Amino acid sequence: MTNIILLLIRHQRKLTTSIWLILFLLTFGLSSGWQRAQASTPQQVAQASTPQNVPADLKNLLTQIDAAASQGNINGVMQFYSPNFTHGDGLNRKTLEKALTSLWQRYPNLRYSTQLKSWKTEGNGLIAETITSITGSPSANSNNLALNATITSRQRVTGAKIVRQDVLSERTLLTSGSKPPQVDIKLPQQVKVGQKYTFDAIVKEPLGDDFLLGSALEEPIQADKYLNPTSVDLQLLTSGGLFKTGQAPSTPGSQWVSAVILRGSGLTMVTQRLQVVK
Q1: What average pLDDT does this structure show over 18-46?
Q2: pTM for the whole thing?
């Protein structure tokens, strides 16, 4: 039993994390070259959705935007967003820039890699779905947390600018320590309003003589959560993980559901997005 475990059990320490800021790992896959996309006939849309028919300009743009995000170049990224940009989580261009700047100050070594899942023309703009992987190595700025995230999002581009973005799914893994717990998460991606659901976070390896501390979190996704850290009360766990039953709110929207688990050799925090629909 390590001293940190004993200390946390004794004082029921409150762990303050930048959990919602960490989740602000928006995809950067669109820019001015998209205005050269093919015309909007059904056949051309179907062809453009296949990898071999993606215009070379579009491939280059994805590479350039990933590079700017990986360098923490806020001006390089924000040039691709419309002044009237809106986001499904309630963000605008100003709050987007502020959140990204804060994120990259805390995590200066993030690396972005975006893949185009599909795209099509719609009206006077383009709709594209992208999958972005983000990785971050431990550093002093991030309190030595390692980060891995995968986010699927949909963007609308009009007049060579991103005017709308919606996150369709996301999963973020944060780890710290020499041997953070390996955690298997069981959570539906979508539930109906008012529906009950189960959320399990199971530690996969044997515990031996270790104790576990942990907590489960559920909060509606709101713009201010990207900038304000959330406090986590760690409790002594009597089993090999967290096993919770939740109930979806009565109105549609998105929730962040998280598990934080700590053992003597490390810490793991996993967050997934839960969509609540009618």
Answers
A1: 36
A2: 0.78
